[in-house]
Q: What sequence folds into this?
C-alpha cells in the first residue's frame, strides 16, 4: 500500500491530517511560551529562562509538570459545572478553527478539511473563544473575574465586525472563501501585470489597509496587550482566570496561545501569501536565468517540499509581532478601546470594502484613486475626532455601584 | 440504521435535552449555556440539510453575536444566580405543560399526517447537488430577493438607532 | 435517509419547549431566549422543507441553472430580523432595569414609565 493511496483514503487520510495538524499545534505551544518569555526578556534587557535544558527550552515543560501536580483550589460559591467546563470551551475553538488552515500546496496533507466556506468557518469558530472567558469569569464568583468576562464579551463583539469587514476585502479580491484558493490567487502576477512578483494582498493598497485592520482586530480578539483588558493584572488581578489554578489555568493559557497561532496562520494565509517564501516569483526568475544552479535553487525554494517551513516561519513571525506589541505598548483605557473599534476601524474597514470593489470592478487606476481618496477622507474626518480623543478625560456618568 | 440516521438521532437527542435544559435550569447563565449548545446542534442540522452557508451563519450570528449579547446582559444585570427570579408555584407549571402539550399534539396531528402521506419525495441529493453554495445564496439575495434584502437592511438600521436611543442616558 | 417528519417533529418539540419557557419563566432575558429558540425551530422547518420540497424560484447570476433557495432565503431574513430584535429587546430590558432596579416580568404590569 503506497503513501498516496493511504492519503486518499477517506478515513486514514483524515486521521493522518488530524495527527499532523493537532500534533503540530500541541507540540509547538510550549516552545511558543518559551519564545515569548525569552524574546520579551531580550527586549527588556533581561536574560529570561535559561537554566532548564539548552537555552532554557525545557522550562515550559517543567512548568507544565508543576501545574499538573499543583493542588487545585476551588473557591466557595462557584458554579461547579460551568467552572469545570469553561477552560475546555476556551481551548475548543482554537483547535477546531485550525482544521481549515493550509500550510502548503499539497491538499492531501494539511487542511484537515478543505471546506468551501473556509474563511467564514474560521471567523465563526474563532468567535466562540469568548465563551470560555465569559463563563469562566462568571462562574468564579469573583467580582474581578466577572468584570473581566464582561469586558471580554463587549470587546469581542466590537472587534469581530471590523475583522469581518477586513476579511470581506480578501474574499472579494480572491473571489472565493476557500483558503487554498485565496493563497493561489495571491500567487498570481502582481496587480495583474508584473509577472515576476506575487500578488500578496498586503502589497495592494486595500490589502494593506485591510491587513492592518485585521492585525489590530486579531490582537484584540486574542485579548493580548494592548487589548488585554479582560485580564489586566494591575486592575483586575488577571481578570477571568483569577480563581483558576493548576491544570485549569494551564488549559486557559494553552487556549490563548493556540488562538494566537490560529490568527497568525490566518493572517499569513489571507494577506502574506501563505506558503510562498517571498513576494518575488522565484519560479519565474528561475525560468529567466541562465545560471543552472541558481535556477535549481530558486525552484527548490518555491517547491512544495519546503512550503510548510516558510509557512511556519511566517507563523513564528506573527507570534513575534504579538510579543513585540506586548513589550512596547501600554494597555488601552476602556473607552479608548471602544472608540478605536467603532469609530476608527469599523468605518475604515467599510470604506476599504468600497475601495476593493472599485478596484475589482473598474480596474487598477480607478481603484488606486479610490483607495487614496478614501484614506484621505478617513484621515480628514478622524483627525478632528482624534484631537478630542487626545484631550478628553473620562467623566463618570453614574455613581459607582459595588458589585454584589 | 444508516450513518445519517445515526447522526440525526444523536443530534436530535442532544438538541431536545439542551432545549429542556434551557427552561428547566434555575440559573439564567446555565440556560444561556444550554441554548448555546442547542444552537450549535441546530447548525449541525443545517449542515446535514445541505446548507453549509446558513449553518456557519447560524454559528456566526447566534453564537458569535446574539448569545454573547445575552450573556453580557445577564452578567451586567446580575440576574444570573439561581436564587433570583425563580418560578412561582407548580400550578402555573402544570398549566403551561398541559397547554403546551395540547399545542404540540395539535401541531403534530395537523402537519405530520399530511406530510407522511405525501409519496415520492424527491431525492434531496439529486435536487441539491452543488446548489446551496455561497455563490447561489449571494446571487439570490441580489436578484430575486433584492427588495426584501434592502428592506432588511433598513430594519437593521432602525434596530441600531433604536437600541442606541434606548441605551443612551441623554439624547 | 432521514425522513422529513423527523425534522418536523424535532422542530415542533423545540418550538413547544420555547412556548413553555415563555409561559413559565419570570426572568425576561430567559423569556427572550425562549423566543429565540422558537425562531430557530421555525428556521429548521424552513430548511427541512427547502431540502425535501424544493421550489424552483430563481436562476443564478449567469442564468445557468435553477436555484432552489426560497427556504434558505427565509432563514436569512429570519436571522436578520432576530438580530435586530435582540438588539432592541435587550436595550429595552436594560432601560427597564435602569428605571426600576429589578427585572421581574411579573412586576412589569404598570403601563407608565
A:
Amino acid at each position: 500500500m503506497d503513501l498516496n493511496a493511504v492519503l486518499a483514503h477517506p478515513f486514514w487520510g483524515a486521521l493522518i491530517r488530524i495527527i499532523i495538524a493537532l500534533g503540530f499545534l500541541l507540540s509547538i505551544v510550549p516552545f511558543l511560551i518559551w519564545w515569548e518569555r525569552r524574546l520579551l526578556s531580550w527586549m527588556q534587557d533581561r536574560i529570561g529562562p535559561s537554566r532548564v535544558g539548552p537555552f532554557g527550552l525545557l522550562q515550559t515543560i517543567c512548568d507544565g509538570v508543576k501545574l499538573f501536580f499543583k493542588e487545585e483550589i476551588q473557591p466557595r460559591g462557584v458554579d461547579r459545572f460551568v467552572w469545570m467546563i469553561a477552560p475546555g470551551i476556551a481551548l475548543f475553538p482554537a483547535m477546531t478553527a485550525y482544521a481549515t488552515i493550509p500550510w502548503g500546496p499539497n491538499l492531501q496533507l494539511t487542511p484537515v478539511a478543505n471546506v468551501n466556506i473556509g474563511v467564514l468557518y474560521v471567523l465563526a469558530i474563532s468567535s466562540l473563544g469568548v465563551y470560555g472567558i465569559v463563563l469562566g469569569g462568571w462562574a468564579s464568583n469573583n467580582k474581578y473575574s466577572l468584570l473581566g468576562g464582561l469586558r471580554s464579551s463587549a470587546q469581542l463583539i466590537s472587534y469581530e465586525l471590523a475583522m469581518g469587514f477586513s476579511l470581506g476585502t480578501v474574499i472579494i479580491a480572491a473571489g472565493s472563501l476557500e483558503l487554498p484558493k485565496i493563497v493561489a490567487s495571491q500567487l498570481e502576477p502582481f496587480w495583474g501585470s508584473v509577472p515576476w512578483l506575487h500578488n500578496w494582498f498586503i502589497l495592494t493598497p486595500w490589502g494593506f489597509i485591510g491587513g492592518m485592520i485585521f492585525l489590530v482586530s486579531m490582537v484584540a480578539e486574542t485579548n493580548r496587550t494592548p487589548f488585554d483588558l479582560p485580564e489586566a493584572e494591575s486592575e483586575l488581578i488577571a481578570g477571568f482566570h483569577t480563581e483558576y489554578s493548576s491544570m485549569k489555568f494551564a488549559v486557559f493559557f494553552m487556549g490563548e496561545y493556540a488562538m494566537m497561532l490560529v490568527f497568525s496562520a490566518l493572517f499569513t494565509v489571507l494577506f502574506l501569501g501563505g506558503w510562498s517564501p517571498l513576494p518575488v516569483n522565484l519560479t519565474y526568475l528561475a525560468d529567466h536565468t541562465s545560471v543552472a544552479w541558481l535556477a535549481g535553487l530558486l525552484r527548490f525554494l518555491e517547491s512544495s517540499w519546503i512550503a510548510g517551513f516558510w509557512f511556519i516561519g511566517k507563523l513564528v513571525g506573527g507570534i513575534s509581532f504579538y510579543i513585540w506589541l506586548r513589550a512596547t505598548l501600554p494597555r488601552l483605557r476602556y473607552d479608548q478601546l471602544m472608540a478605536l473599534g467603532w469609530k476608527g476601524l469599523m468605518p475604515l474597514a467599510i470604506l476599504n470594502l468600497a475601495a476593493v470593489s472599485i478596484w475589482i470592478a473598474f480596474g487598477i487606476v480607478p481603484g488606486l484613486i479610490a483607495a487614496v481618496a478614501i484614506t484621505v477622507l478617513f484621515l480628514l474626518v478622524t483627525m478632528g475626532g482624534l484631537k478630542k480623543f487626545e484631550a478628553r478625560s473620562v467623566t463618570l456618568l453614574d455613581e459607582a455601584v459595588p458589585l454584589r | 440504521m444508516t450513518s445519517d440516521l445515526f447522526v440525526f438521532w444523536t443530534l436530535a437527542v442532544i438538541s431536545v435535552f439542551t432545549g429542556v435544559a434551557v427552561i428547566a435550569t434555575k440559573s439564567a447563565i446555565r440556560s444561556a449555556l444550554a441554548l448555546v449548545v442547542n444552537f450549535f446542534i441546530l447548525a449541525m442540522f443545517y449542515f446535514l440539510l445541505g446548507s453549509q452557508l446558513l449553518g456557519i451563519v447560524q454559528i456566526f450570528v447566534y453564537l458569535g453575536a446574539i448569545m454573547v449579547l445575552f450573556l453580557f446582559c445577564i452578567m451586567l444585570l446580575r440576574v444570573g444566580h439561581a436564587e433570583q427570579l425563580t418560578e412561582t408555584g407548580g400550578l402555573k407549571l402544570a398549566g403551561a405543560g398541559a397547554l403546551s402539550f395540547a399545542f404540540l399534539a395539535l401541531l403534530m396531528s395537523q402537519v405530520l399526517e399530511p406530510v407522511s402521506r405525501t409519496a415520492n419525495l424527491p431525492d434531496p441529493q439529486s435536487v441539491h447537488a452543488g446548489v446551496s453554495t455561497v455563490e447561489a445564496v449571494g446571487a439570490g439575495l441580489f436578484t430575486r430577493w433584492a427588495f426584501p434584502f434592502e428592506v432588511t437592511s433598513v430594519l437593521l438600521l432602525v434596530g441600531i438607532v433604536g437600541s442606541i436611543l434606548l441605551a443612551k442616558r441623554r439624547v | 435517509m432521514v425522513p422529513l417528519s423527523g425534522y418536523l417533529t424535532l422542530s415542533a418539540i423545540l418550538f413547544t419547549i420555547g412556548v413553555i419557557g415563555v409561559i413559565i419563566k419570570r426572568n425576561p432575558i430567559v423569556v427572550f431566549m425562549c423566543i429565540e429558540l422558537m425562531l430557530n425551530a421555525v428556521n429548521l422547518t424552513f430548511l427541512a422543507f427547502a431540502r425535501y420540497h424544493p421550489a424552483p424560484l430563481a436562476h443564478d447570476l449567469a442564468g445557468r441553472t435553477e436555484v432552489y433557495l426560497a427556504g434558505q432565503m427565509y432563514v436569512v431574513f429570519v436571522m436578520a430580523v432576530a438580530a435586530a430584535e435582540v438588539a432592541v429587546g435587550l436595550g429595552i430590558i436594560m432601560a427597564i432595569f435602569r428605571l426600576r432596579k429589578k427585572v421581574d416580568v411579573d412586576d412589569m404590569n404598570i403601563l407608565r414609565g
